[in-house]
């Protein structure tokens, strides 16, 4: 059996080509197994679930994997492919052939765009299968060599090999590999390469040239948009071109046109969470509720639960829902969006594991808390936030990174320093943050006003905790409480000060009490609060006061930008 193209050897060495077939249908798996065996292969393993596939790949480095797209399990074949790549269970040069009876454009493009392989439609033809395996072996040998050169930092040899082969063979993944390498290491050389006759008319190189010209500002934005539009018209299935066109249109604030381009990209790859979120964001800007809700449905239906960023996708979508709810003036639309947000959460639950559902519900409660803050219902928002988190007070490391970041946002607003310190300690241990997590953290780090405010609060609480230092006066404590009116530690210290000094009870005491009453705080704060409330019962009828009290917004609500307008 001779390889169609092999840069290292003229023949296919069957004994060194390990194959794994992943299919939950044993009949289909056995049929494919027999076909592959008839082609002369002997090193063939079978896995009937994604768990078995992971175990197999953990033990052996496979050269080729056949993965059934429609695994009737928690994750489908496409998500299994992502998981194996993410966890390093397959090498970057291993080939993956997705097998499916679904030959729709969206499924085929969405699968092939992942790289590392091909698509095989059922029913399987032996001749087609043989051709697919030949190509897979050729590409396996090629990319194995290129990645080895990359690891050895032999960049000159890597470039000469890749350019030479790319000039004679139109292998899309090789083109992308070469373009990505040059884009990172030498953009000028990439620009020169894309202008050579051999490459100048190939779509991936045209797009690469436009991207470099955009970054270096070599073309006027409108000329770039015109050239990219022509590329999209010539290649209507070239989803990356639509992505780039949408970005260019955003840069000149042509949001309606950008939304149309993003919708074209999403229509070609309906399972892409990034493109769903792009449409959500642009629909929000353009106030297109219909497209917004359609994109949220797609994201919920195809949420990639095996991706490490699954929770970030949820957080971002919930954030867009809140923004849309806040900006709409129609009460009918507002109620519909609140209901649709709840339905989005329910749809996501169908795809998630039990542990993931817990994180989702926490995020949803945080999202509601932000909305309550906007409405001025601070005590209710604080109580909901802490109740959603209370079971993790001693196990914060079990929470997803974006959940911790969202929690830090809210705690910063409430001034809950006792919990912020613990969250911050855990966040420092988190690595491999995705872009959304990094962006959210940067918003916090770059808010100098917030940082200064928290630092001042920290100094005050340290003084209150240390009996050896000079304690703040009642007036100083009152002033600090005005700056941080929702801080449990300040509220408790303020009430303790009132009792100790036998001060007259202030008129707004019920508001202060409401901000700590029935709040799940730390054990120490809970004990201090309960002791205070017992003593105050001797002075006022707290139960009646609180039953009549509805938390109102202060005359000026100092809502940080990361909550009011993320």
Written overview of the protein:
The protein is mainly α. 64% of the residues lie in helices and 4% in strands. The chain contains 28 helices and 5 strands. It has helices spanning 26-38, 50-59, 77-86, 105-112, 126-151, 155-168, 172-185, 187-194, 203-215, 221-234, 239-251, 255-268, 273-286, 289-301, 310-327, 331-349, 354-374, 378-389, 401-414, 417-427, 435-445, 448-465, 474-483, 488-501, 509-514, 523-536, 542-548, 561-564; strands at residues 19-22, 44-47, 64-68, 95-100, 117-121. Strands 2-1-3-4-5 form a 5-stranded parallel β-sheet, sandwiched between helices. Helix 3 (77-86) links the parallel strand 3 and strand 4. Helix 13 (273-286) packs antiparallel against helix 14 (289-301), helix 15 (310-327) packs parallel to helix 17 and helix 19 packs antiparallel against helix 20 (417-427). The longest helix is centred in the N-terminal third of the chain and has 26 residues, at 126-151. It is elongated. It starts with 18 loop residues before the first strand and ends with a helix.
Q: What is this structure's SSE topology?
A:
Layout: E1 19-22, H1 26-38, E2 44-47, H2 50-59, E3 64-68, H3 77-86, E4 95-100, H4 105-112, E5 117-121, H5 126-151, H6 155-168, H7 172-185, H8 187-194, H9 203-215, H10 221-234, H11 239-251, H12 255-268, H13 273-286, H14 289-301, H15 310-327, H16 331-349, H17 354-374, H18 378-389, H19 401-414, H20 417-427, H21 435-445, H22 448-465, H23 474-483, H24 488-501, H25 509-514, H26 523-536, H27 542-548, H28 561-564
Parallel strand pairs: 1-2, 1-3, 3-4, 4-5
Helix pairs in contact: 7-8, 7-9, 8-9, 9-10, 10-11, 11-12, 12-13, 13-14, 13-15, 14-16, 15-16, 15-17, 16-17, 17-18, 17-19, 18-19, 19-20, 19-21, 23-24, 24-26
């Amino acid at each position: 059996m001779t390889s169609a193209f092999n840069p290292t050897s003229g023949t296919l060495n069957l004994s060194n080509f390990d194959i794994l077939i992943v299919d939950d249908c044993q009949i289909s798996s056995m049929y494919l197994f027999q076909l592959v065996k008839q082609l002369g292969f002997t090193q063939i393993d079978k896995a009937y679930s994604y768990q078995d596939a992971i175990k197999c790949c953990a033990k052996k480095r496979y050269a080729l994997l056949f993965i059934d797209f429609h695994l009737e399990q928690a994750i489908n074949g496409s998500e299994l492919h992502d998981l194996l790549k993410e966890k390093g269970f397959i090498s970057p040069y291993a080939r993956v052939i997705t097998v499916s009876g679904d030959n729709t454009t969206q499924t085929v493009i969405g699968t092939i765009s992942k790289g590392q392989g091909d698509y095989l439609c059922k029913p399987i033809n032996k001749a087609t299968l043989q051709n697919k395996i030949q190509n897979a072996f050729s590409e396996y040998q090629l990319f194995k060599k290129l990645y080895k050169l990359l690891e050895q930092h032999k960049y000159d040899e890597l470039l000469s090999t890749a350019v030479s082969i790319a000039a004679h063979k139109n292998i899309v993944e090789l083109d992308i590999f070469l373009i990505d390498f040059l884009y990172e290491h030498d953009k000028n050389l990439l620009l020169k390469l894309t202008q050579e006759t051999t490459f100048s008319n190939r779509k991936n190189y045209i797009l690469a040239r436009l991207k470099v010209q955009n970054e270096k500002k070599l073309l006027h934005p409108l000329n770039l948009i015109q050239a990219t539009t022509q590329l999209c018209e010539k290649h209507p299935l070239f989803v990356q071109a639509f992505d780039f066109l949408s970005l260019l249109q955003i840069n000149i604030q042509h949001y309606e046109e950008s939304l149309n381009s993003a919708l074209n990209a999403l229509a070609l790859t309906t399972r892409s969470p990034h493109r769903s979120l792009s449409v959500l964001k642009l629909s929000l800007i353009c106030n297109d509720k219909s497209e917004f809700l359609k994109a949220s449905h797609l994201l919920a239906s195809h949420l990639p639960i095996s991706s490490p960023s699954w929770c970030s996708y949820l957080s971002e979508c919930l954030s867009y829902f809140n923004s849309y709810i806040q900006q709409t003036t129609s009460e009918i639309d507002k109620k519909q969006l609140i209901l649709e947000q709840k339905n989005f959460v329910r749809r996501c639950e169908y795809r998630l594991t039990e542990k993931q559902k817990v994180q989702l519900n926490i995020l949803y409660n945080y999202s509601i808390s932000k909305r309550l803050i906007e409405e001025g219902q601070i005590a209710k928002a604080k109580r909901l936030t802490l109740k959603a988190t209370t079971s993790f007070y001693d196990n914060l490391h079990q929470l997803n990174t974006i959940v911790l970041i969202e929690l830090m946002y809210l705690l910063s607003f409430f001034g809950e320093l006792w919990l912020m310190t613990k969250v911050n300690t855990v966040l420092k241990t988190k690595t491999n943050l995705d872009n959304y997590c990094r962006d959210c953290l940067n918003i916090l780090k770059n808010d100098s006003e917030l940082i200064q405010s928290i630092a001042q609060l920290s100094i005050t609480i340290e003084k209150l905790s240390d009996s050896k230092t000079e304690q703040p006066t009642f007036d100083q404590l009152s002033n600090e409480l005005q700056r941080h009116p929702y801080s449990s530690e300040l509220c408790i210290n303020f009430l303790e000060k009132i009792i100790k000094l036998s001060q007259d009870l202030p008129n707004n005491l019920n508001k202060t009490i409401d901000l700590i009453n029935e709040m799940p705080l730390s054990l120490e704060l809970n004990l201090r609060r309960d002791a205070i409330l017992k003593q105050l019962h001797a002075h006022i009828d707290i139960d009646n006061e609180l039953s009549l009290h509805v938390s109102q917004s202060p005359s000026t609500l100092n809502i940080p930008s990361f909550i009011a307008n993320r």
